[in-house]
Amino acid sequence: xxxxxxxxxxxxxxxxxxxxxxxxxxxxxxxPAAVIGALGIRPGDRIADLGAGTGYFTVHLARxxxxxxxxxxxxxxxxxxDAIEEAAARAGLANIRPxxxxxxxxxxxERVDLAFLCNVYHHLPDQRGYFARLAAQLAxxxxxxxxxxxxxxxxxxxxxxxxxxxxxxxxxQAAGYRLESAPDFLVDRVRQSFQxxxxxxxxxxxxxxxxxxx
Length: 214
Ligand SMILES: C[S@@+](CC[C@H](N)C(=O)[O-])C[C@H]1O[C@@H](n2cnc3c(N)ncnc32)[C@H](O)[C@@H]1O
Known about the structure:
The protein is globular and about 50 Å long. The protein has a single domain (8-203), classed as Vaccinia Virus protein VP39 (Rossmann fold, 3-Layer(aba) Sandwich), CATH 3.40.50.150. Helix content is 39%, strand content 22%. It is an alpha/beta fold. The structure holds S-adenosylmethionine. S-adenosylmethionine binds next to helix 4 and strand 2.
């Protein structure tokens, strides 16, 4: 039997799942413009929004790359892929590609400059293995940005869906990444960590002062 996608039941199911992921006031605490701004996305970038849900961040990411970029919206839940298609159409964006993920496996058709995950880390099976495999899907200099609820916040109280930021750093280091930056503007109000990683072997930016020393 084929899955009902366009019927009333399907729309209701998507709406309920969407509300569980994103409350209407989310922009106020999630600060998507600040998150996108901190990522330094360039026009034409390729991005994977892993565990994209209803496409809340996908739409912001796709706008940031402009029409020459592509944002792959990856999720295991087909209802969410339908919701992403709807969100892309509503936003008038033609540069979003919904992709069905199969748990720990990920097969994109091209390498990406940025893999972005918001509130997905705790869902992933074997995070160290997942991010070690993800390295093959990153373009040279590619980065992984992880936003994740921390202990002590609303998500922790309601669902227990949290990962301490130190645990994420340990996993990422074990998977072959190093921390590039950790903007802290989501920590106080919403208790989310925001950490950006690059591959350990990626060349470090040259420190201009150190470079001038004899
Ligand atoms: C809490 S929601 C977050 C959605 C979105 N990132 C956001 O911030 O609005 C987690 C999403 O991750 C998806 N997910 C869970 N495990 C996954 C996996 N192994 N690969 C890809 N997506 C996954 C779920 O289906 C769900 O849509």
